[in-house]
Design goal:
Elements: H1 9-20, E1 46-47, E2 53-56, E3 59-62, E4 65-69, H2 93-96, H3 102-112, H4 116-124, E5 129-135, H5 150-164, E6 167-174, H6 198-213, E7 222-226, H7 239-256, E8 263-267, H8 277-284, E9 295-301, H9 314-327, E10 338-343, E11 349-351, E12 357-359, E13 369-370, H10 381-401, E14 404-407, H11 418-423, E15 435-436
Parallel strand pairs: 4-5, 4-14, 5-6, 6-7, 7-8, 8-9, 9-10, 10-14
Antiparallel strand pairs: 1-15, 2-3, 11-12, 11-13
Helix pairs in contact: 4-5, 6-7, 9-10
This protein binds 2-acetamido-2-deoxy-beta-D-glucopyranose (9 copies).
One 2-acetamido-2-deoxy-beta-D-glucopyranose binds at residues 352, 354, 356, 365.
Length: 445
């Protein structure tokens, strides 16, 4: 997930409100006697078609990737797992790794936060792929300031995925020097990815990743490797340099891989997939088949990261989500597949009993609930339904215009968590994540 610092506004406060379970404004009506978070028995559901698969060589890939991120596991993010940071001054993986007893705590976390039972649960919901973030430090031949060992758990997850029939995207989420200064890169603060040897060292780590996970041994389960996550295109980073590096990294990963069908993903650098069409055409060729193209773009589409989004009603959020197909995803003629590698059902809205929504984090009428400061287990039906409507619109837009999607994140807090969304009736019911209550919201049909 991306935390855009000062811009995050309400959303950032909301994260902590949800984590703490404490309302930020004591005059807000919360936990307002609406105890049932279940959807009405009388509601009707439709099942969108399951997704067919296409096989090439040893690789069989669903035609629509319906995925989830396994965030907060192999790279710590404090807002997602605050408990592990208790009694430390650490703010990120880097600072955590030098605290007392860090190694034992990390092993315990790796061992328990995500298990084979979770993979089975995910598969039972109709999810067919996982994007698994991991840091470069487990694949780097020289010493780094990070504790190693997370890669053994990536291997376990890949084994569980293989058994459950899920595909895996190995996502190099933390790169040398930090590509964005966000905690999700391993180290918050300075961005030094494009200084010193960090760019070439990023490629060295990717070569090791590709030698292993890009081999034919993994071709039945690892369908893609991601070069870098969310490199910023401002401040210390230069987007032109990012694009030059991407082509070098692409060729390095390709030559280190023996799986000829491996896909190589690059995050768009917050410049939208449109900015990658020329490179896409160069790497994929002019007549690429979108389901087999080797180079693809990862874009992240949130509606809770900038203050302006927190003024929107849910109807406006939905209109914006539907619009993404045209505004942020590419037409099939672009020869460049796009994955929505991160998005969330979480918006900052308040919902009245009659279903009307306003943006923000405060409302003043009995029964009204705001998504950012009421625990999801206490959500009444109006809030559950409004959130479901938005999430279904997002999925409709992605399945129309993208190769696939990965929700952030399986165990995210509140409405950030797929686990919570399924448990509290925001997505899926009988047949899983392909199930729809609000068909054709975007008018594509
Ligand atoms: C998709 O839906 C159609 C019509 O309901 C059905 O005939 C077909 O078997 C479905 N395909 C899959 C893969 O579920
Ligand atoms: C899956 O394949 C079947 C048989 O070719 C076809 O009828 C159906 O429309 C396909 N479903 C999807 C979702 O593409
Ligand atoms: C398929 O997998 C087998 C066993 O791992 C391997 O020997 C073979 O080269 C693979 N074929 C392709 C086309 O990747
Ligand atoms: C890292 O070390 C291994 C084992 O010595 C070697 O096979 C590999 O080529 C090295 N990777 C890089 C990128 O130098
Ligand atoms: C980014 O790098 C390119 C190529 O080196 C250079 O032409 C351009 O001026 C740089 N942009 C900025 C904003 O520094
Ligand atoms: C893309 O490639 C797959 C696998 O070879 C094939 O089934 C499909 O028909 C191709 N699609 C197009 C549009 O060529
Ligand atoms: C839809 O996208 C276009 C740009 O493609 C933009 O001009 C317009 O404001 C967007 N509308 C909404 C509701 O987001
Ligand atoms: C829904 O309730 C709110 C708050 O009482 C009210 O302002 C709004 O007009 C109502 N909307 C409709 C469509 O009844
Ligand atoms: C792993 C690595 O090469 N890190 C380097 C990134 O760049 C900074 C300086 O810009 C170095 O201090 C790091 O050693």
């Amino acid at each position: 997930m991306v935390n855009l610092g000062a811009l995050a506004g309400v959303a950032f406060a909301a994260i902590f409100a949800v984590v703490d379970g404490r309302p930020q404004h004591h005059h807000i009506h919360h936990r307002s006697g609406l105890v049932s978070a279940k959807v009405d028995a009388g509601d009707s559901y439709a099942s969108t078609n399951g997704t067919n698969s296409t096989s090439i060589g040893n690789t069989t890939l669903p035609d629509v990737i319906r995925g989830v991120n396994i965030g907060g596991w192999l790279i710590l993010e404090k807002w997602m797992t605050p408990d592990i940071f208790d009694n430390t001054d650490a703010v990120d993986q880097y600072s955590f790794d030098s605290t007392d007893g860090a190694e034992a705590k990390l092993k315990q976390h790796w061992e328990t936060y995500f298990t084979e039972a979770d993979v089975q649960k995910i598969a039972s919901w109709g999810i067919n792929a996982m994007r698994i973030p991991i840091g470069y430090w487990d694949f780097f031949n020289d010493t780094t300031p990070y504790i190693r060992g997370a890669d053994a758990y990536l291997d376990k997850a890949i084994g569980w995925a293989r058994k459950a029939g899920l595909k895996v995207l190995v996502d190099c989420h933390g790169s040398p020097g930090s590509q964005n200064g966000f905690d999700n890169s391993g180290r918050s603060g300075n961005v030094k990815w494009q200084t010193s040897d960090n760019l070439s060292n990023s490629i060295k780590a990717l070569q090791n990743i590709a030698t292993k996970y890009g081999s034919t041994t993994y071709a039945d389960v690892v369908f893609a490797i991601q070069l870098v996550n969310e490199p910023i295109s401002w401040a210390q980073n230069n987007f032109t340099l990012t694009q030059t590096w991407t082509q070098q990294a692409y060729h390095a990963v390709k030559s280190a891989s023996t799986n000829p069908h491996l896909q190589i993903l690059m995050h768009d650098g917050f410049m939208t997939p449109w900015a990658w069409q020329t490179i896409g055409a160069q790497l994929n060729g002019p007549d690429t088949n979108l389901s087999t193209a080797p180079f693809a773009i990862d874009t992240h589409l949130y509606q809770n990261q900038v203050a302006a989004d927190s003024t929107l009603t849910q109807a406006q959020h939905i209109a914006k989500a539907c619009n993404w197909t045209a505004s942020n995803l590419l037409p099939s003629t672009a020869n460049l597949p796009v994955y929505v590698g991160e998005f969330s059902a979480q918006t900052n809205i308040c919902v009245y009993l009659n279903g009307t929504t306003v943006g923000g984090d405060a409302c003043y009428e009995d029964g009204c609930q705001c998504s950012c400061n009421v625990d999801i287990q206490d959500w009444g039906q109006p809030l559950v339904k409004a959130t479901r409507m938005f999430l279904e619109a997002e999925l409709e837009a992605f399945e129309e215009g993208a190769r696939g999607w990965f929700l952030w994140s399986y165990k995210g807090p509140g409405a950030w968590g797929l686990r919570n969304l399924v448990e509290f009736g925001v997505l899926g019911k009988g047949v899983g994540v392909g199930e729809r209550m609000f068909l054709n919201q975007c008018g594509f049909e």
